[in-house]
Specification:
Largest sheet: 5 strands, mixed
Radius of gyration: 32 Å
Order of helices and strands: HHHHEHEEEEHHHEHEHHEEEEE
Number of strands: 12
Mean pLDDT: 80
């Protein structure tokens, strides 16, 4: 127990004892001495109480911070113990879940909306220090599975924020009109006409569901053992991540896909400029200036930039006359290293900025991955078909924070 609490309790006891003594008209000598002693102790305790509060202040702050973050840490620790191998065996053999895996599945199920076994998206991330169990030389040594190659996330480099949504629709009100400043034209004139404060909404809806499918052969289950868990997690994570990255940039808004940045430029109010010139720092600088004139940024370093590999090659190959400095050197000096990805269409660049803490785009992920088992399609071979369903949506809250450049490297004739 904290010293301050002990002192506070003792002060309460002294007050109760004094209340019984001070009501007497003629207290005895012993009672008088007792009142004097308790009065002296009470004054000393007041000083001790203040000193205890000062000494315990940091301890209370640490305890408060621990309480505020404990639940998040505990859940993160549970996710770290989540075993996808248990899910595979539960779907294949009907084996019961246990431990942290069981707790997380029950927590996700309590929120509803899953036909199969729910899997938290964070559990698909590659875990640090993850290894495959010792080789089994029967009949031959099986080495760790070599993963497929997937591109890095260009959406993350462009400042797109991923948010988790339990259920329902998430709306972002964006101010479109508001106060107007005006000067008096005469001494008694009005300072200006009042302007209505107006907002428009950008919403994330659970209208877009996609799925990653894989067939796990009987040989794979028997051959790889625990290493299969890590391989499945990495592969699901990579293929889902790559597709979400693609729809953020190029989602058509049709055939079940969310509407991405480039196809949705007109819908989101994003400015698109045709450069029709060689790739140079000057072309990008013009858009940086446009950002500044719109009060979106105050320095070129606040811009996130991404384009396809061919533009990088052209920038790096173009030298400033009479120098060994390339256009790529000039660009990276001002805006840092851009995201280079073939997810972005040829001869196209995307420039974004985070303004007032608002990301240039939001990718909403609804719940976890709904992992569904199909033991029938490939029953003749003993294989298991797994489908991981993901519900997601994307929106751009404020088009002012994004600009698109097209026809970079195309010199008009």
């Amino acid at each position: 127990m904290l010293d301050s609490v002990k002192i506070a309790r003792r002060q309460s006891e002294i007050r109760q004892a004094l209340a019984g003594l001070v009501g007497k008209d003629k207290p005895s000598e012993d009672e008088t001495r007792s009142m004097e002693a308790m009065d002296s102790e009470y004054r000393i305790n007041e000083t001790r109480y203040r000193a205890a509060l000062v000494a315990e202040d940091q301890e209370r702050r640490d305890a408060g911070a621990d309480l505020e973050t404990r639940s998040d840490r505990e859940y993160a620790e549970l996710v770290g113990k989540f075993e996808l191998r248990q899910i595979a065996f539960a779907l294949d053999e009907g084996r019961a879940l246990e431990g942290a895996t069981k707790e997380i599945v029950e927590e996700l199920r309590s929120r509803g909306g899953y036909q199969g076994i729910p899997v938290p998206l964070a559990a698909l991330e590659t875990r640090a220090g993850e290894t495959v169990a010792a080789d089994v030389p029967n009949p031959k040594t099986i080495r760790p599975i070599i993963d497929r190659i997937f591109p890095g996330s260009v959406a993350e480099r462009l400042g797109i924020q991923r948010i988790s949504i339990t259920s329902g629709e998430l709306a972002f009100p964006v101010a479109t009109a508001g106060a107007v400043f005006g000067w008096q034209t005469t001494e008694l004139a009005n300072v200006g006409a009042a302007s209505e404060y107006q907002t428009a909404e950008r919403s994330l809806n659970p209208d877009h569901t996609g799925g990653a499918q894989m067939v796990i052969s009987r040989k794979a289950l028997k051959q790889s053992g625990e290493g299969l868990e890590a391989a499945i997690r990495r592969d699901l994570n990579a293929v889902i991540g790559a597709e979400l990255d693609r729809v953020v940039v190029n989602g058509s808004g049709a055939s079940g896909e969310p509407l991405g940045i480039i196809p949705g430029a007109a819908t989101y109010g994003i400015a698109s400029t045709s450069v029709s010139a060689a790739a140079t720092w000057a072309a990008f600088r013009a858009e940086v200036v446009a950002f500044m004139q719109a009060n979106a940024i105050t320095s070129a370093g606040q811009v996130n930039l991404g384009f396809d590999p061919a533009i990088w090659a052209e920038l790096d190959d173009t030298l400033i006359d009479g120098t060994a400095v390339s256009e790529w050197d000039r660009l990276t000096k001002h805006v840092g290293t851009p995201a280079i990805s073939n997810v972005i269409p040829d001869e196209t660049a995307i420039m974004t900025a985070t303004v007032q803490g608002i990301a240039p785009g939001y990718l909403g992920i609804y719940g976890g991955v709904d992992l569904i088992r199909d033991p029938y399609t490939k029953a003749a071979s003993g294989a298991l078909v797994l489908t991981g369903l993901v519900t997601a949506d994307f929106t751009v809250p404020r088009g002012l924070q994004t600009r698109i450049l097209t026809d970079i490297g195309m010199v008009s004739g």
